[in-house]
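2.7 Reproducibility. Because tokenized structures are sensitive to small changes in the input, we list the exact sequence used for FAD-binding oxidoreductase, including any N-terminal residues retained from the expression construct. No trimming or masking was applied before prediction.
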Amino acid sequence: MKGLSRRGLLGGAAAAAAAAGVAAVDEAAETRASVRDRGPVAGPATVFPNDPRYQELTVGYNQRWVGRPDYVRVVSSTEQVVAAVQEAVDAGKRISVVSGGHCLAPFVFNDEVKVVIDLAGLNDVYFDTRRGAFAVEGGARLSNVYETLYKKWGVTIPGGMCPTVGIGGHTTGGGYGFLSRQFGAVIDHLAAVEVVVVDRSRTARAIVATRDPDDPHHALWWACAGGGGGNFGVVTTFWFRTQGRTGTDPGGLLVSPPKDVLLSAVGIPWSMLDRATFTALVTNWGAWYESAAAPDSPAKALSGVASLAHRSAQNVFLLTQVDAAAPGAEGLLSGYLAALTSGLGVDAVVAAQPAQKLPWLHAVRLIAASIPSFINPTLRGSSKSAYLRTSYTPVQAGAMYDALTRTDFANPAGAVTLAGFSGGAINAVPSTRTALAHRDAAFWTLFETQWQDPAADAANIGWLRDLYGAVWSATGGYPVPGEQADGCYINNPDPDITDPAFNRSGVPWQTLYYKDNYPRLQRVKAAYDPRGVFKHAQSITAAE
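Resulting structure tokens (single pass, no recycling of outputs):
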């Protein structure tokens, strides 16, 4: 797999929030104390520009974005977050928050941010007996979440492939991965959140908001379930329990991953592809996922990624995972690969690369280890996204082919990644149940490029803009929600989406990310962040 590229709602809620502030902090602290003895909690670390750690703590996964805050506060408890937020608010300093550091746009690290709150010390994963749910603290990384949940209780959340992604941004944006067609998005298992917010009197406090519709803070839970990171406050703890699960056995309260999976990695040499066969591959892919998008599809046990890297990478890859215990799993996989490669003349190439049967956690580790960009700390990058209800057209596939075979651009990390992480169980949830509105897509696509040399910024960014603009030229450069497309994924934020020079669709970026859920998100913003303390270049604005 070497060479793969990645990547009456509120009512009196505002008043209730203010009234419940101290109680919420006490309740949250009581919950944590009743679960397990954490022992002494380390005090917060404050890192100033003259500290050798400062450089490391002011840049994330995307090396293009470097911050220059007055200091970074590394916290280890909710109480420390409350204190850090209050201190910054009192001093009138702009705040940003780091969970895993994978924000692909300059939302966290930029010149306007004066205080970065880093949740690295707040990273426990445990079973909360009081809430009957699994608690994952806001600074945990996906690799630790998967390892801990599975080894201790045999359960998981259906999250993404990259091991170093933080739970905070991943969950608040929705969260997808290889198990999502089978079990839903990460937020479909989100039972509660603890959020540090700032009220109109500029007082910071922690609030616990739950999935229960009768919870006075239910609107805050709803917004944190797909509304994107950095919008409403600092999420210090996520609690996960699958909807409808009851009992006292933790192993029965969250979904269990497959015991074994069939993992297939098929590389198709670019030398075997021309414009017609490449177009067939792209349209075949879309047709298969379109046919398998229904919540009751028997094919929801299968998810795949097609990494269509630039011709200089020499190959394109089909990475596929199937629940080995699903009825007819081997036939499902072979039929899928046959459907995707129909008309390409690569049957022998596919047959020579058989699937492996692996324990689920082995497969998680293997995928992570096989994609070097997941753990490479030196990369700069640019990315864009699109949800699709139906397949790409031959014209759109041809535009991809033109960009991926350009001879004046030869970066093997430039790619179109077709991600089969939509449809199935994700589409069983109404679009208004959570803030994640994209509930009838068949698949989504990541358009991306990564590089190391700052001198290559213009060439890479320009190439990606040309590619994306050509694919979506018929709708003004962006995937306007309609019969074919369904907007963009907030967890792949795109700085160009607000610029009319690139987004000529006439459709505002808020609609592309949130569709009809945006006005409701604005009302939540007004109730829980009325002073606009938590903001970035594409943050939700409060309703007037």
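The radius of gyration is 23 Å.
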